[in-house]
Amino acid sequence: MINFLLTCDTYTLAVTALLIIVVFYWVFEVHYFARTLWCATMCRIMKKYVHILDTTSYSSACLTTDVDFLLFHMNNSRYLREVDFARTEFYTRTGLWAAIREKGGLPVQGGTSIRYRKFIRTFSLYSISSRIIYWDRDSIYMEHRFVSRGDDFVNAIVHCRQRVINCDVEVLMGELLAKRAKESPGDLQEAPRIKPECPLEIHHWIQANLVSSANLRNGN
């Protein structure tokens, strides 16, 4: 391969590079991976670490690649795709990803619930606020809010269950809370950072998922 490249002229190299790019875009969703990498890199370089119970904000815009066939608002499926990028920022800035990997764990999506309130128009700006609202031994429950720029209206709200494989989440979160308290003891003078109570909607959502799992196990 190296010998081939050394013997090629500029035109051949350009065509070869173009074909490689086309193949990569055909086989992989290059834009998705590139944007995820960019998000994680910018968080490490430009943004500071935050407390595990803090809220992060990810800014974005509805472009022509995000719209549905009506062309004037965001496609429903794009909301969950954008949540991936917002979650990447949260995991990076809070150190949650590194903490999970240090324990040999791996987070996977165990469930998602989304409620649409008002569509996001094409070319409009918005932000996604992300925070942890509850956790149990197996999973972390997160909330993501799509907030319009200007009027701060919540266009959609997403609840996600992040199942953490090979890791006790109660132990993990306890260590992260203790680590933060040790690093910034002055924060404890304002308000203790402890595990939040399970929100009512999350409680009912968990119960609904349990019923769904039971039905599938019974062949329903």
TrEMBL record:
Similarity-based family = Belongs to the THEM6 family.
What InterPro entries does its record include?
A: HotDog_dom_sf, THEM6_lcsJ_thioesterase
Q: What is the lineage of its organism?
A: Eukaryota, Metazoa, Ecdysozoa, Arthropoda, Hexapoda
Origin organism is Acyrthosiphon pisum
Q: Which residues cross the membrane?
A: 12-34
Q: Which UniProt keywords apply?
A: Membrane, Transmembrane, Transmembrane helix
Q: What is this protein called?
A: Protein THEM6
CDD domains linked: 4HBT
The protein's matches in PANTHER family, at most eight in alphabetical order, are given as: PROTEIN THEM6, PTHR12475
